[in-house]
Every structure is written in C-alpha cells, then in structure tokens.
Design brief:
176 residues; alpha+beta; 3-stranded antiparallel beta sheet; two-stranded antiparallel sheet; 5 strands; rod-shaped
Length: 176
C-alpha cells in the first residue's frame, strides 16, 4: 500500500507541477497579448495623429491652389494643432496697402514660413520689394531663426502654386 500511496503522491505532485507550469505559460501568453494590444493601441493613436497632420497639410495645399489663404488663417486661428502642423503660418494683415479694398484676391496675408534647417542646402529664395509688398530674403542668415515672413495675396498664392517640385529624396511631384 505504501508503494501505491507513494505512486499517487508522485503523480499528484507531477500533476501540480504541470498545472503550475501551464499557469505560467498562460500568464506569459496573456501578458504578451496585453502588451501587443497596448502597442497596437499606441500605434493607432500615432496613425490617427499622423492622418490628421497629413489632412491638415493637404488642406493647406488645396487652399493655396484655390487662392484661399483666408481658409488657412481661419483654420489656424481655431486649431493650435493645425498651426503647429502647417509649414506656413497665415495671418490676415490689418492694413490694406492697395486700391483693391473689397476684393478677397488682393487681401494681404502675412505668411510665416517655418522651414527645416537643412532645407537651405537646396533652396533658393530671392528678395523682392515694391511699393505694396515687402518680401524677406530668408537666405541672408538662416541660422538665426527657422522662420521667414512674407506678405502675400490670395492671387499670388493661387498663381504661384503650379509647378514641378523635386523632393529631398529625389522624387518629383507635379502640381497643376
């Protein structure tokens, strides 16, 4: 009888060890699944944020194409994230320096270009000024600040939109 009890005790101990080992394996899998779900959740939040930023940037391009700097300025007034995301900050100027007082095409906007520091390795920006507008030459000293301000009208934005742009990775994008 002792041998039978010993055999049962050994079987019981082995069964308990096996159950304990299975519990550890289950816990490991559950922790891995939980961590995976958390990572998926974080990546979806990142994607959502990136999608919103892409949408804002595309809206900026569409608004410039349509000559609607006013829509960019309005969006940036209402949404700080849009202001941070955009490459340009658009502010409606208070003073009108021309004879087209009630035509939105000629309303002046202050464009503040927030350029990337290494952009200047390929950029060419010239300085122009006339009796109505003053443009700055951002290439004078790009190391002082990463912004440059211009005065622009809706008509200038619309007319200067089209072209072929070579991106830093070598891709070319043609906008019409």
């Amino acid at each position: 009888m002792n041998q039978e009890k010993a055999k049962q005790a050994v079987e019981l101990a082995e069964k308990e060890l096996q159950e304990e080992d299975e519990k550890k394996q289950i816990e490991l899998i559950k922790n891995a699944i939980k961590q995976t779900l958390e990572k998926i959740n974080n990546k979806e939040k990142e994607r959502s944020k990136l999608n919103k930023e892409i949408k804002t940037l595309k809206q900026d391009i569409d608004n410039i194409r349509a000559g609607r700097l006013d829509l960019i300025a309005e969006r940036q007034e209402k949404d700080d994230e849009a202001k941070k995301t955009s490459i340009i900050e658009v502010i409606k100027e208070k003073e009108v320096h021309h004879h087209h007082y009630h035509d939105r095409w000629y309303e002046p906007y202050r464009i503040i270009w927030k350029y990337e520091p290494d952009y200047y390795s390929t950029a060419t920006v010239t300085s122009v000024s006339d009796s109505y507008w003053t443009y700055c030459d951002c290439s004078d000293n790009p190391t002082l600040s990463n912004t440059c301000a211009y005065s622009v009208t809706n008509s200038i934005a619309k007319d200067s939109f089209a072209g072929t742009y070579e991106l830093s990775n070598g891709d070319c994008v043609t906008l019409t």
